[in-house]
Amino acid sequence: KSRALVYLGLLASIVALCLCFVPGIGITAGHAKRWVRLPGFSLQASELAKMALIFFIAHFLSRKEKAIEDFSVGVLPVLIITCVIGLLIFIEPDFGTAALIIMWAVIVLFIAGMKIKHLGIMAGIGIPSAALLLLAAPYRRNRILAFVNPWDHMQDIGYQIIQSMVGFAKGGIFGAGLGEGTQKLFYLPAPHTDFIFSVVGEELGLLGIIIILVLFGIWLWRAFSIAIATNDSFGFYLVIASASLIGLQSIINMGMSMSLLPTVGVGLPFISYGGSSMLMVAVVSGLILSVSRRARL
C-alpha cells in the first residue's frame, strides 16, 4: 500500500509539471511556466515534485540500500526519475530548481553509500553538461557574467546582485531595524522571494544574519540527530532526504544573495514568500517530527 502511494505521488507530480504547459491550466509569470491553476488557488508544481521525490527516494533506498554499490540496481533508477523531473522543471524554465534537485539526489545517494567511483563518473558527466546548459541560453550566460564581475554591468545584468550587496552593506552590524529597509522598496528586484536574505541583512544586520545561520544550523543538527537515532530504515532516509534538501536550498539561496554563487531562482526555506514553498517546508518538518516520535533521542 505504501509503495502504491509513493508511486502515485510521483505520478501526480509529473502530471502537475506537464500541466504547467497546458494553456488555461498552466500559469505563466516572468516568462516561466511554473504554476498550475486549481480551483481557488495555484500550485507551484516543482514544490510538489520535491515532496514526491523525498518519499520516492526514501522508499527506494530503504528497500535497495544493500544494493547501493550496484549502480544499475541501487543508483540508476533514482537518477532516471530525478532527471525526468529535473528536465520538466528545466524547460519551464527553472534551471536553479532543476540543478538543486539533481545535486540533492546525488548527495542523498552518496550518504546512502554510493561508491566514490560512481560519484566521480556522475560528476564527470554532470558538470560539463550543466556548463553547456548554462551557456546555451543568453539569460543564463548573463547571470554567469554578472556573477564574475557585476560592477562591469551595474545598470543591466549586474544590477540585482549589486543591490543585494548594497543591502548587506547598509545593514552593518545591527541593521536599519525591522521593516525599515529601503532596498526592498525601490531598488532590489524579488526582495520577498529569491533575495529575502539581503532584506534580512539590511534590516537586522550582521547580527541578524548570524542568528538566521545559527537557527538553520540547529534545525539541521536536530534533523540529522533524529535520523541517526532511528532504527527505521525508511524513517532514516526520509529525514536525511528532507534535511539535506532544506540545507542545500538554504546554502544556495544565501550564497546567491551574497554573490558567492551565481543568481538562480531558489527561495530561502521558512523565510521566502510563497504558499507552495511554505507548504513543502511544513510537510518536510512534519515528516521529521513524525520520525522523531519513534527515534531513541
Overall description:
It is a single chain. With 297 residues, the chain is mainly α. The protein is 68% helix and 5% strand. Strands 1-2-3 form a three-stranded antiparallel beta sheet. A hairpin with a 2-residue loop joins β1 and β2.
Provide the fold topology.
Blueprint lengths: L1 H18 L6 E4 L2 E7 L2 E4 H20 L6 H20 L4 H18 L3 H21 L1 H11 L10 H13 L11 H4 L9 H34 L3 H25 L17 H18 L5
Antiparallel strand pairs: 1-2, 2-3
Helix pairs in contact: 1-2, 2-3, 2-4, 2-10, 2-11, 3-4, 4-5, 4-10, 5-6, 7-9, 9-10, 10-11
Query: Into which percent range does the helicity of residues fall?
Result: 55-70%
The proportion of strand residues reads: 5-15%
Radius of gyration: 20 Å
Order of helices and strands: HEEEHHHHHHHHHH
Strand order of the largest sheet: 1-2-3
Q: Number of DSSP strands?
A: 3
Identify the overall geometry. globular
How many helices? The count is 11
Briefly note the structural class of the backbone: mainly alpha
Largest sheet: 3 strands, antiparallel
Question: pLDDT average, as an integer?
Answer: 92
Query: What distance separates the N and C termini?
Result: 29 Å
Which residues sit in consecutive blocks of at least 5 with pLDDT less than 50?
none
